[in-house]
Amino acid sequence: MKNIEVIPWKLEGFDMKRPIIIAGPCSAETEEQTLQTARELAAFGIKIFRAGLWKPRTRPGAFEGVGVAGLPWLQKVKKETGMYVGVEVANANHVFEALKYGIDVLWIGARTTANPFAVQEIADALKGANIPVMVKNPINPDLDLWVGAIERISRSGIKQLAAIHRGFSTYAPSEFRNHPQWLIPMELRRRMPQIPIITDPSHISGNRSLLREVSQQAMDLNFDGLIVETHIRPDEAWSDAKQQITPQQLHEMVDSLQYRKPKIEDVPRTVLDDLRVKIDDIDNQLIDLLKDRMKISKEIGLYKLENNITILQSRRYNEVIRDRNEKANRKGLNIEFVSKIFETIHEESVQLQSIVMNSKSNGSFIYKQQP
Ligand code: PEP
Ligand code: MN
């Protein structure tokens, strides 16, 4: 795969330094709500305003956006506040309308990214446009589909690109509306290091209480920015009410995040080196201990074989897990983590004992104890 060309966005007075913050309502509902939200965001120094005009909804009957009627409202936002404005486009017609009204930034939504024909139609409509385009991850956890959509837009000549990480839908119940699956955007970064990644904590969380945590995680992974749904009256929003916050709350959240140094060279080497030496040493000890423990497991297997008793002794197993969890708890360790480790150790132990027991063939016992 030839790596695509990405350049910083050419928006005067805006620089791509972390954290890039894009904010605005899920949907533009009325002129008053759009303008008032924009005014409050501009007062906090937000430079790029988002608002959905065409809303692809999973089920019919939900609010599907005001459409072209909202474009003049966004022109007013631009004129009055000086912010750049961005909308979601889901087909060629949306692209033509948005460009006609001087929209500055476009993004492709998660449902659209999942459909290569739709993405290609948008890419064709974008030919000759010199505008930043952000591509949301597809709703399903498929990195190639995400990369493919970015490539299609890139091939139409767009170089001002970004990826938006908005999480992935799952059938199983989860605390997230869309599971972040951080490994996928991390792998995107490895494959396309030149493309900025903007996390959308709103659609990942689906509710206000997780927003900060998700945003902090994005910053800790050195992603480039956040796109956050913001509304002057979040509870009354016509779409995605549970996840929207006020401009004031956004300001407080962005201020409360930690922006750590991205480069290891920026912290004194010696401190980190010392800690890493300690970690290496502890891991070596863990390996030696595991080796000793497995050696004893084999001896137990041998004993069980000689006395003709089954490998699994449920009472003992339950007691081991209970005892280890209790000790771990007393030491302040996470019980779930510790029980996972002991379950894995026990599984390996059973496996080894089973090898020991079943290696007696033709009357000759072939198990040899390790030195
Ligand atoms: C949105 O940004 O409002 C939206 C519809 O998001 P997504 O495409 O991520 O579902
Ligand atoms: Mn939304």
Structural notes for this entry:
The chain has 371 residues and is of the alpha/beta class. The chain folds into two domains: 20-262, TIM Barrel, CATH 3.20.20; 266-364, Chorismate mutase (Chorismate Mutase Domain, subunit A, Up-down Bundle). It is 47% helix and 10% strand. The chain is built from 13 helices and ten strands. The strands form two sheets. Strands 1-2-3-4-5-6-7-8 form an eight-stranded parallel β-barrel, surrounded by five helices. The protein has a two-stranded antiparallel sheet with strand order 9-10. Helix 3 (92-100) links the parallel strand 3 (84-88) and strand 4. It is elongated and about 85 Å long. The two termini are 51 Å apart. The model is unreliable at 361-367 (pLDDT under 50). Bound molecules: phosphoenolpyruvate (PEP) and manganese (II) ion.
Strand order of the largest sheet: 1-2-3-4-5-6-7-8
Task: Indicate the percent of residues in helices.
Answer: 40-55%
Average pLDDT, rounded to a whole number, is: 92
What sequence of helices (H) and strands (E) makes up the elements?
A: EHEHEHEHHEHEHEHHEHHHHEE
What is the count of structural domains? 2
Major beta sheet, specifics? 8 strands, parallel, barrel
Helix/strand-derived category reads: alpha/beta
Radius of gyration: 28 Å
User: Which stretches of 5+ consecutive residues score pLDDT under 50?
Assistant: 361-367
Q: The CATH topology of the largest domain, please?
A: TIM Barrel
What is the assigned CATH homologous superfamily of the largest domain? Aldolase class I
Strand content: 5-15%
Q: What general form does the structure show?
A: elongated
Helix count? 13
What is the CATH top level name of the largest domain?
Alpha Beta
Q: Which molecules other than protein and nucleic acid are bound?
A: phosphoenolpyruvate, manganese (II) ion
N- and C-termini, Cα separation: 51 Å
- Oligomer kind: single chain
The CATH level-2 architecture of the largest domain is identified as Alpha-Beta Barrel
Number of strands: 10
